[in-house]
Amino acid sequence: MTRTAAMDLKSLIKDVPDWPQKGVVFKDITPLLSDAKAFEETIDRLAEPWKGKGVDIVAGIESRGFLLAAGVALKLGAGLVPVRKSGKLPRAVVGESYSLEYGTAAIEAHQDAFPKGSKVLLIDDVLATGGTAKAAVSILERIGGQVVGTMFLIELGFLKGREKLRDCDCRALIAY
Ligand code: AMP
């Protein structure tokens, strides 16, 4: 496979100023997803650090996290668990509220999403303030998972989200 350089991936992420509200620069990854080679490269590189680490479950955060987590789960031979916005999952859940770069929200996962002691890798598209990922890690641990790491396509370093994930092996492909 021909490898796309890291800079090429970055060039396929479009900045959308003042969306969904003034002051936020939204990172639009849809051009990257629609480029077959770049998408494959992205999934490969998200999965690479976790090969051989015994990951049982890849958890993805709604909604763009799902798109990446599914590919990574297939690469790692792991199962996929969706961490969804509040009210979307049909059975008993474990949930947490958290702050976003823009607003507040709540997420949850099925309380029986995986067997206790499972090794879980958390995936999302963007690490911003870290509130979402911190809440997701807490949910996964309350379910009985052992979170082996958190992996992001994009890290907005100036928002210092990584500081909320100090206890995790926290990695990102592209930093701003
Ligand atoms: P946070 O909890 O602040 O780390 O926000 C992370 C979540 O919000 C992720 O699920 C992202 O999809 C989304 N998000 C936050 N900021 C941005 C941004 N600037 N561009 C795109 N998505 C973002």
Key terms:
single chain; about 180 residues; alpha/beta; Rossmann fold; seven-stranded mixed β-sheet; about 25% helix; binds adenosine monophosphate
Beta-strand portion reads: 25-35%
**Span from first to last CA?**
27 Å
Main β sheet profile: 7 strands, mixed
- Shape-level CATH architecture of the domain at 53-175: 3-Layer(aba) Sandwich
The share of residues in helices is: 25-40%
**Quantity of strands, as a count:** 9
Alpha-beta classification: alpha/beta
Q: What bound compounds does this protein have?
A: adenosine monophosphate
Overall outline: globular
Describe the overall structure.
It is a single chain. This protein has 176 residues and is α/β, with parallel strands linked by helices. The chain has a domain at 53-175: Rossmann fold. Helices cover 27% and strands 34% of the residues. The protein has five helices and nine strands. The protein has helices at 6-11, 30-33, 36-47, 64-76, 131-143, and strands at residues 14-17, 25-28, 57-61, 79-85, 93-99, 104-110, 119-127, 146-155, 170-175. The strands form two sheets. Strands 5-6-4-3-7-8-9 form a seven-stranded mixed beta sheet, sandwiched between helices. It has a two-stranded antiparallel ribbon with strand order 1-2. Helix 3 (36-47) crosses helix 4. The longest helix has 13 residues, at 64-76. The structure holds adenosine monophosphate. Residues 24-27, 61, 64, 100-101, 124-133, 161 line the site of adenosine monophosphate.
